Queue: 3 jobs
Job 1
Amino acid sequence: MEKLLQQAIDDLKNFYNFSNEEFSILEKADKAAEEMTVPEFEHYIKHEFNSDAPKIAAKYGLLGIPIKKEFGGSGAKPLITVLTKERLGQIGLGFSSFYNVQVLLCGQTLQRWGNDGQKSRYLKSIVSADKVFAFGLTEPEAGSDPASLKMQYEKKGDRFILNGTKYLISNGTIADNIIVFARSKDKSDQISAFIVDGNSAGLNRMALRDKIGLLTSDTAMLEFNGVEVSEGDMLGEPGKGLGIAYSALLNARLGVASGCVGVIEGCLNAVVARSKERVQFGKPIGRHQLIQRHIAEIRQNLEMARWPVYFAALRKAEYEQNPGNHELREEVDMRVSLAKKIASRLAFESADRGVQVFGGFGYSLLSPVGRLFCDSRVARIYEGSDEIQELKIAAAVLGDEFRAFD
Ligand SMILES: Cc1cc2nc3c(=O)[nH]c(=O)nc-3n(C[C@H](O)[C@H](O)[C@H](O)COP(=O)(O)OP(=O)(O)OC[C@H]3O[C@@H](n4cnc5c(N)ncnc54)[C@H](O)[C@@H]3O)c2cc1C
């Protein structure tokens, strides 16, 4: 395991009793991340989805960490998912984004809201990577405000018919199934969730290739023209779609935050190696004090980002044991927003410092810090932007009557 992550686990041991099973999951996460490093780089340079990573992750059981044992998972606590995502984040946020969608937005959502038939139909294949899932909430005109989404569904006999467009959907061109949110044509205040078959007639997918980072992650625009969904593939109750989406986003936000801690660690490992190797003015650049400042700042960022993420994960574990505890849910929501906002900003700042330490080579996708720089910028936007996290944090501090958005 990379040294700093090992150090964090050692620190955590003082107040968290890791079981042998949890240690074994973390060891597998470490092996998987090592195995993914070269393919991740090769696919990044080719600007293509890393098709090797899901298979490697499945081989080591990573896609089932928060999924119950009866569905092939480990049923582990949020802290174990967080530490795993931290390890994966060190090699970039491309596969980390796949993981967020496949496991945290879709797997955990099906586990919480799916009926028995849906759980047994889909969860095992999510864990084994036999099926890829996508999560379609965002639309061209509904991003930060998903309650304004326009995609429509209509009941016809025993089918639902979907019409509309989803935008910026990760895993969009490759997904076997897509969890989609749509508004009832008859009762426009009702938003519901559906599990759509990726091979459905009337579904057109267009790859969005011009991203400035996350080059190993697949992103797409999806057009639904009269796509049919069977009655049994509505997820949760009619009209409960937004609540389902928000609970999914809570999981994924913590996933983004922990991936960002990994980015900071990845930067630190890279700059330490580079500053010992690279010689200028007759000595390794690590002996120049201004380079040492960058290293100290990145190390400080790691410390500042890591603990809010771990603390949010520990509180989330308590909430998962008491899902009816509204007060705890509000606290977890706020802690996860804080963790995401802190970690994503510090990840980008650390990657910027990493590029500076690497000099001209840093300004290239061939350097690890160059890739982390491009990848980490999105973490301040997706799964709820910085501004949305700020509004959520402020509402939690001021009280709901001061809430600046609905
Ligand atoms: C690479 C990538 C992958 C993604 N994957 C998925 C996916 O798999 N599934 C999915 O559904 N979505 C996905 N998204 C979409 C993502 O969640 C949205 O981009 C995000 O929620 C922001 O929405 P938006 O882009 O429409 O920005 P907008 O909502 O248009 O926001 C623009 C700016 O206005 C600010 N703003 C908006 N409202 C307020 C307010 N009330 N107060 C203050 N400021 C405000 C925002 O913070 C932002 O700075 C992905 C996005 C990217 C870039």
Note: Residues 101, 135-138, 143-144, 168-170, 211, 214, 219, 378, 381-383, 385, 387-388, 391, 405 surround flavin-adenine dinucleotide (CB under 6 Å).
Job 2
Amino acid sequence: MKLIVELWGDIQNLSIGEIRGIFEGEEIPYKIIIEDYPIILLEAENGKFLQRAGLIRRVSQHLYSGRDIPRLNLYMEDYVIRVRRREKNIGPKNIERIRAKGIEGSVDLKNPKNVIRVYIASNIHVGLEIFEVKSEEFEKRKAKNLPISYPITMHPRLARAMVNLARVKEGSKIIDPFCGTGSILIEAGLMGMQIYGSDIDLRMIDASEINLRKFGLKAHLKVSDVGGIEGKYDAVVTDPPYGRSSSTKGESIYSLYERAFKKFSEITEKVVIALPDKRAINIGEKYFHLREVYPIRVHKSLTRYFSYYQK
Ligand SMILES: C[S@@+](CC[C@H](N)C(=O)[O-])C[C@H]1O[C@@H](n2cnc3c(N)ncnc32)[C@H](O)[C@@H]1O
């Protein structure tokens, strides 16, 4: 079926990367038909796995895409039309025009059974909403709402996207060897993965344990330098120090990354990692094939490169 996926925020490339990661991880055939921010139109057998995405808002069944306001010829009980426009210059008048063009039935603004989503971008896209990814859920896991957080704590939507970039199925074994306060482990755990975490700093292991507990999750946690991790994993998903706010105990970040990638190459086939620059990315390429990189600007002097590597 054709699906309209509304993206979250304006980091389109990473959002689309995450969607690809989910379909490929679950081995579901899919095809992206159009990218027309804030939506993409895709063809897939079903979109239910997208419910686990961090960087989307909602998914609708596609009804129409084109230049003009469509004649839909629909009968809908208790429906509402919600419009999102990329440009600000199209007013509510247009909603009336859409309604006038072929939807019969009763409107319910408060508790609608059917939500018709209209996106006005380069083209007009109309869909019938299938599900929404609830923002309140992510809100609960933001740093300020965790029992223990530090400035290093990663945004839950980004942490989730990182896990999904690793092309993993529910039940996979994931390790974060620089787990900090546990945000990547929390997202992986909530998606049904087996979670393993380690960090050189005991305070961080305690923080991860307490934060995970808040969401009813338990990980295999241990205090360890990245060089000391053992076992085999479906993927490493991690956010190492960038040599700024989180400590490397005096080691240069490049020496740390060299040791880390060498270790990763012994324990996994797949790595998703946030890195601070090209030099760091190149170090990973000595041990793995670099498949994808998504630069996301954090502020003037820091861009995080979300990188996906495979053996
Ligand atoms: C950027 S933070 C991780 C943040 C984490 N994603 C979160 O949301 O809290 C990097 C972590 O790496 C840890 N670390 C630094 N050097 C390490 C090493 N050699 N081995 C393992 N962990 C190390 C730090 O203690 C810190 O918790």
Note: Residues 152-154, 177-178, 180-181, 183-184, 199-201, 204, 225-226, 239-241, 246-249, 256 surround S-adenosylmethionine (CB under 6 Å).
Job 3
Amino acid sequence: MDFQSLTLFATAAFSLEGLVAAELRRLGFENAKAELGGVRFTGSLLDGFLACLRLRMADRVLIVLGERQCLSFEDLFQFTSSVPWESFLSLDGQYNISGKCARSQLMSVSDCQSICKKAIIERLRRQKKVQIFPETGVPFPIHLSIHENKARLCLDLTGPALNRRGYRTWNGEAPLRETLAACLVELSPWRPGMPLHDPCCGTGTILIEAAFRESHRAPGMSRSFACEAYPFFPVKEAQELRARTISEYDPSRITQISGNDIDPQAIELAKRHVAQASLDTLVSLSVLPLEQLQLSAPEGVFLCNPPYGERIGDKKSCAKLYRHLHDLLDRHPGWSLCAISSDPDFEHAFGKRADKRRRLYNGRIECQFLTYLSDDKKNRYHWNKG
Ligand SMILES: C[S@@+](CC[C@H](N)C(=O)[O-])C[C@H]1O[C@@H](n2cnc3c(N)ncnc32)[C@H](O)[C@@H]1O
């Protein structure tokens, strides 16, 4: 296999593919192209590692090993056998195959996984003349996906998903996935240097993701990736790349990121996460109902993930809270406000139509990301649009 010229695929949550494609293009992968479930781009193995280190909004980075139409188990066996596994798998490796099938003739995921495994082992037996595969060595996560009868086999470079930045070890009631929080930061009108405040910050995910961005901290900077254990991994170049990435991190850039929550336990967790991200003196947190919040900065962005009120009894209290968010915005005329909510009545309860709205998924929950721009930003927005 030519590790200098690979087809790579950054997987992304449904509705976030376009954002990840733009992120990859900013990283220099000009041919990054969004598809259902992710973004295809080309590069070397080191490029794949760079994507693991730096992507804020993607879930995983994979090497695409092959794609082929498969209508039967025999097709799948032949397709899997055609991949040159012997050129990159260690013979004592653990070949862990995960699978998903959708809208295809082959729909039994477990059967497809077994067939792939059998085809890999048979090919290795044939090519390497070995009989025993102890599966005690390096894990090689292999992904099989079949969509509309097209099978794709990939080798995972990431290991545990990219949202595992390492700072979140305690979950609150309804924490936001780190990658989605990074998307909200990206979609909001907030830009580094401006004040950002989350008035119902829960365990602090939005604040930490904004602080990472403001300080030029690559989200994968302090964690390892599956590919680093692969025998063909360019260790020295990757160490240099990681060192360069670390040297770009400048926490002194973080100046005005803060949050509050009504729940003291949530703030306790947020403080732990902020400390685990080594940001404890840089992000300020307080226990406070947003109804009492008054900030002194003349302009900035409120960015939040308020409760959605999925249960009937909660609906009323959420509607009240959304109205209080409107009051909060009225008390801060130079500020913009963005909120993600699955509640279709959000704007009605808030009491005003949003200036911008975008459909997003929080896991499987369909949500709207609503933006209320400050008058100043609104003028600029219309001016730019015009
Ligand atoms: C969906 S959670 C936020 C989760 C957060 N994004 C995270 O990643 O952990 C909503 C938060 O709103 C808080 N909340 C509810 N009512 C509030 C109020 N009146 N003032 C401030 N916070 C409130 C809850 O305590 C909860 O932590």
Note: The chain is about 35% helix and 25% strand.
